[in-house]
Amino acid sequence: MTDDTRPRGITIREATPDDAEIICRQRLAMFEDVWGDLDPGAVAAMEATFVPWVRRGLIDGAYRGWLACDGDGCVVAGGGLIVHEWMTSPRNSDSRRAYIANIYTKPAYRSQGVARCIMNAILDWCRGEGFKGVALHASPYGRPLYESLGFEPTNEMRLNLE
Known about the structure:
36% of the residues lie in helices and 20% in strands. It is an alpha+beta fold.
């Protein structure tokens, strides 16, 4: 991606283990946008488990993150990629799978192409690593962006066991 397609003053950088708390705050803000107010106890439980998980993933490569920063270096958006082992199939003999997660942009920076920059950075990395496909779950807010990038709905089904 060239700088001329990036919103003015925005830079994209890869996340480091020191960014785990920022990624957690973005994940919580993403859930608030979709679900509304969150239970404080559930937030505390998520923070206690997610921050060490994402930090560990950023260290061992199981999680990769990209952050968009404004001209002052403040993080204004981000997104991540979970790389995990998965069963092969006749259509894909690669046992690695890529799953995009935690796409979030602060409200003041929305509709300016920042999330598209994050997505392009993630997709460029996946292509460079030889992934044959990538998946994500889309909120109603993100669906138009993902569709514009070529994502299509799949036939996944889910059962909540709680």
